[in-house]
Amino acid sequence: MDPARPDVKELSLEELTGRLARLGQPAFRAAQVYNWLFHKDAASFEEMTNLPKELRRALDRELTVGRLEPAAVQVSEDSTRKLLFGLSDGERIESVLIPERDHWTLCLSSQVGCAMGCAFCNTGAGGLRRNLSPAEIIGQVQAARRLVPDDRPVSNLVFMGMGEPLANLANLVAALQVITDPRGLGLAWRKVTVSTVGLPGPMVELLSRVKVRLAVSLNAPNDALRDRLMPVNRRHPLAEVLAACRKLPLRPGERVTFEYVLLAGVNDSPDQALELVRLLSHVPAKVNLIAFNEHPAAAFKRPGQEAVAAFQEKLLSKNLAVFVRRSMGRDILAACGQLRARVEKDGKV
User: Fold this and answer.
1) Does the pLDDT value for residue 259 go beyond 80?
2) Cα separation, 323 vs 325, whole angstroms
3) Which of 3, 80, 123, 330 could pair covalently with 337 via S-S, beta carbons 3.0-4.6 A apart?
4) Which of the 8 DSSP states describes residue 299?
């Protein structure tokens, strides 16, 4: 992106109002531009026909209108779609569109690569390349919306794709403000979930700045195992993560969601389930169990259905709210990072 001509989607409505004021324009012009960008999905200022022609030219001299389009789309037998995007600097990211009964859920990325190095994750194998800009985060949502019919919209977002969202906090918050603003993309905040490996300070700061749901990727019931699976635990052990969870500005009746990827023979025993119950006993918690989505580079195996059911039953028997997430897109390797890795290895889309 040309730093002299930033993407207009990087600007909050207030910032855009100020920029337009310097051009001698009234405040309502900013709302008109926002409407074209986020409600009408305009690809250029020239399309904004209710703006004066001279203003359109002036905006085009100062700003750009970014637009992400998938370079490749893989479609699973269950209709899951994996989207590969090429960015302006040649980097690539992925999003995944997951079909639901009457809507779509989009799993989107917040960084190019990831620095967290979780042992079971393919994205982190190549390390962190860079953060995504707010416009690149927003652009994934807009691109996904273009691919689905209006009567079955993209209404749920999960930041569980490439990267650690809270390691890109400023850009994430800027994007979320547009995503959840009725004047922007207008998604309900209750349908937006940010998943984190557990960065205590940013967890609390995120929810103090924007209304969304938070999910903590736990994946182990004790520090010894979590140290092996998630190196971030050596900097922020479980006690610190759970202390931050107790400080979150939750609404009445709201619980913290904990994600737990089940790895066969590693973290899926009944004893480990009971250990997890004890760990979460002082936090208003619900647990999402996710059977590991295998990929060619994986050193782990997916547990069988019986093991998943037994783990779930142990949690339920202790009155812990628990859900088993469906695995979608297994035939197209829908776990994030795999399509990008294949394209970078083979040199072609």
Assistant:
1) yes
2) 6
3) 123
4) S
Provide the 8-state DSSP code for 157: E
* Catalytic residue chosen out of the listed positions 94, 136, 164, 259: 94
For 256, counting Cβ atoms within 10 Å of its Cβ (0-12 exposed, 13-18 middle, 19+ buried), the class is buried
Architecture of the 70-346 domain: Alpha-Beta Barrel (3.20)
Spans of all domains in the chain:
8-62, 70-346
Tell me how far apart the alpha carbons of residues 131 and 168 are, in angstroms, rounded to a whole number.
6
Decide which of 3.40.50.150, 3.90.580.10, 3.30.1490.100, 1.10.150.530 is the CATH code for 8-62: 1.10.150.530
Q: Tell whether the model's pLDDT for residue 303 goes beyond 60.
A: yes
Cβ-based burial of 14 (10 A; exposed 0-12, middle 13-18, buried ≥19): exposed
- Evaluate if residue 13 carries a pLDDT over 70: yes
Residue in the block written with tokens 């994007």 = 175
Q: What is the pTM of this model?
A: 0.92
Q: Is 336 a catalytic residue?
A: yes
Which candidate, 152, 59, 73, places its Cα nearest to that of 343? 73
Strands 285-291 and 256-262, by their bridges, are: parallel
Q: What is the pLDDT of residue 265?
A: 97
Helix H or strand E segment including 344: helix 338-346
- Mind listing the pLDDT tens digit for each residue in 84-133? 999 999 999 999 999 999 999 999 999 999 999 999 988 877 799 999 99
According to DSSP, residue 11 is labeled S
Give the Cα-Cα-Cα angle 28, 40, 180 (nearest 5 degrees).
Answer: 75
DSSP for residue 342: H
| Annotated active-site residue in 107, 114, 121, 336 | 336
Tokens of residue 118, six digits: 């979780």
Q: Does residue 340 register a pLDDT over 70? A: no
Annotate 81-148 with three-state secondary structure. Answer: EEEEEECCCCCEEEEEEEECCCCEEEECCCEEECCCCCCCCCHHHHCEEEECCHHHHHHHHHHHHHHC
CA distance from start to end of the chain: 23
